[in-house]
Amino acid sequence: MSATPQPLKVLFLCTHNSARSILAEALLNDMGAGRFKAYSAGSSPRDNQQPNPLGLQVLQKAGISTEGLRSKSWDEFATPDTPQMDLIITVCDNAAGEVCPIWPGHPATAHWGYADPSEGDGTDEQKLEAFRQTLHAMKRRLELLVSLPEDKLAKAVLQTTARQLVTN
Description:
By secondary structure, this protein is an alpha/beta fold. It is about 35% helix and about 15% strand. It has one domain: Response regulator (Rossmann fold, 3-Layer(aba) Sandwich). It has five helices and four strands; from the N terminus they run βαβαβαβαα.
């Protein structure tokens, strides 16, 4: 009998950890079927930062759990006693250009840029639609990630694999 493999731990980063990274965390935990464990954090969340209510609403309408989602600093994941990440993905342009901490275990990294659905002065329905579009774009890319065979998720090839996942 073989041991059950540990889930691949993925950390999604954005600046404030209130919209895109929260959506990605919830989506991957929903889609990952035990093969993945997702987390999210921000490089500089504001004081008392909370997940964007529109993002939470879109997740709930899609049937995805929002339990336990909270905005937090990436500092929570840069200490030796936190879960060691296998893959770190920046999902906004600001976090991609920032100097990241040295992550324990030297995980693979990738940048998957998405426009910020919380920006703009549209109507509530337009803002909600921006969150829906971001959720769907992320879902397409995450479907590619979760469907990868085990050999593509091996640490030696994970970085190249994650960086090549693009959708049209």
